[in-house]
Amino acid sequence: MIDRRSFLSVSAMGAGAMLVAPRMVLATVPTERRFVFIIQRGAADGLNIVVPYADPAYARLRGALAIDPAGATKLDGTFALHPSLAETARMYSERQALFVHAVASPYRDRSHFDGQNVLETGGRQPYQLKDGWLNRLVGMMPKAKDEAIALAATVPMALRGAAQVTSYAPSSLPTPSDDLLLRVGQLYAADPQLHPLWSAALEAKGLAEGAAAKQDPASLGKLTASFLVKPNGPRIAMIETGGWDTHSGQQGRLAAQLKALDTLLGSLRDNLGPAWSQTAVLIATEFGRTAAANGTGGTDHGTGSVAMLVGGAIRGGRIMADWPGLGASALYEGRDLKPTASMDSLIAGLAGETFGIDPAHVSHTLFGVTDAMPGLAMT
């Protein structure tokens, strides 16, 4: 069973569980395709995840934080993958991983909260929209019995909106007897408001039966997969991860975060089984970090970053980047990786191709424009 308070203690569980405060949210739509959105809260450092080792300015700007390409996985003549991402590198070699670099949402300031709000709502500026793009995407699908289930005490912004979301957070109280559940059901049977809510709660409880209790990355991946493979289970999942804000001690912290993420992705792949071939996973952050290292062994809030797409439904084995370079004149505001790709366009293209919906229509519904990045997923 899922215990959010246990999730919140993950940060104290060692290097194998460094995805601070992960939470999972699931949405039910009638399709055999799976779409998983993993948000990296805290502004993950794209320059040290997919490393532009051949850019002549990279090593100079990063100094001691620069990733040695000799220990990383060379992706092509320009980029290498952080050495902690071993499973992701294997997916890349099997054409199941795609990286989109120098990408950003429309947000151009440096507040985590505002940046996450823009990333999750799909607005042009913070708090412009009151619902999330993932909820609007659910609303574009044929109606399912239950549109969405949030296995957490609260629902993240990306899944808030008109599509109904049921929140389910198991308590530590003793499990009620079947007789009690039956009696409560009979009590609510004629109530037009309470009966649907009670039915939705029972449905969520049924989906959670047998779910793993462990909170390490491998167990989180297995738990997520266990829901996604159920015949009547959800087909959309969102996993929230924290701990990516590396102002100091970045070298070890980022390595541990990426190792945990890599373990999560590997576990998700292994436990999805044949459904992996129908799955697209998007990993994205609210903004990137400064091109140069700071004076405390870390990096500060920046702009452009990298998005990772993995899964059997991804047209992988490639890097998509209109690389702006890291020279002084090429940096955004003289300090950040300049964005040359749109996160909104990426999301629209990936979601549209994954679910067989016109990407331009997805883009207009989710973001109010008709700009969708092509060629991301199998159609």
From TrEMBL:
Organism lineage string: Bacteria, Pseudomonadati, Pseudomonadota, Alphaproteobacteria, Sphingomonadales
Highest taxon, organism lineage: Bacteria
Protein species of origin: Sphingomonas oryzagri
InterPro entries linked to this entry: DUF1501, TAT_signal
Record protein name field: DUF1501 domain-containing protein
Coiled-coil blocks: none
